[in-house]
UniProtKB/TrEMBL annotation:
GO terms for cellular component: cytosol. This is Ribosomal RNA small subunit methyltransferase G. One of its GO terms (molecular function) is rRNA (guanine-N7-)-methyltransferase activity. The gene is rsmG. It comes from the Bacteria. S-adenosyl-L-methionine binds at residues 75, 80, 130-131, 145. It is found in: Cytoplasm. Its EC number is 2.1.1.170.
């Protein structure tokens, strides 16, 4: 039943993922549900809602990652959207390299365990406050899913981004007020409406660049 829901949801989003990738996504959902009983990674407990509210809601941004080779996922909690995106892109050549930056130790520990159990060579976990992270090479893009409001997001993470790189903020309703509070040297270059099957809620990807 859950496998059929995943397959149907991916099809509705126009995503074609191999069976082995779908199997690994379901394995991640099961891991999230298992660890959630002890570590309280998410308030969502229902397996079907984990699928729609977490997996599909993470994968909906996949088409927007074309051309990106190094992606940072900031404040991802249980590894969302980073781990589903890493699973979905692991077979690409080259694979999308994703670094998850998570402050909370128990959440970073879960992500590290998921990396090991799922064999995600293209996924790295950094257990540190984002302002203290200084990567060897800057990222092409930084994604966040309910990390903070836009002004804080770009302010705290801009040192991680290469010149010309993009901030990808996953939001619910169109955040007019947050956009108005962006610093003057940042601008929204695109706002992409997102439709997540089974979610029944308004979603947007706000793409920001530094002028």
């Amino acid at each position: 039943m859950i496998a059929m829901t995943l397959e149907r949801g991916l099809a509705q989003m126009g995503l074609t993922l191999p069976v082995d990738v779908q199997t690994k996504l379901l394995a991640f959902a099961a891991l999230l549900q298992k660890w959630n009983k002890v570590y309280n990674l998410t308030s969502i407990r229902d397996p079907g809602q984990i699928l729609t509210h977490h997996l599909l809601d993470s994968l909906v941004v996949l088409p927007q990652l074309a051309g990106i080779e190094r992606l940072a996922d900031v404040g991802s909690g249980g590894g969302l959207p980073g781990i589903p995106l890493a699973i979905a892109t692991a077979g690409q050549h080259p694979a999308l390299a994703i670094t998850s930056i998570e402050t909370v130790n128990k959440k970073a520990s879960f992500q590290q365990q998921a990396k090991i159990e799922l064999g995600l060579a293209n996924f790295t976990v950094v257990n540190e406050r984002v302002e203290n992270v200084h990567p060897d090479a800057p990222f092409d893009a930084i994604v966040s899913r309910a990390f903070s409001e836009l002004a804080d997001f770009v302010g705290l993470t801009q040192h991680l981004l290469r010149p010309g790189g993009r901030f990808l903020a996953m939001k619910g309703v169109y955040p007019h007020d947050e956009i108005a509070r962006l610093p003057a040297d940042f601008r929204v270059v695109e706002a992409v409406p997102l439709t997540v099957p089974g979610l029944g809620a308004e979603r947007h990807l706000i793409i920001v660049e530094k002028s």
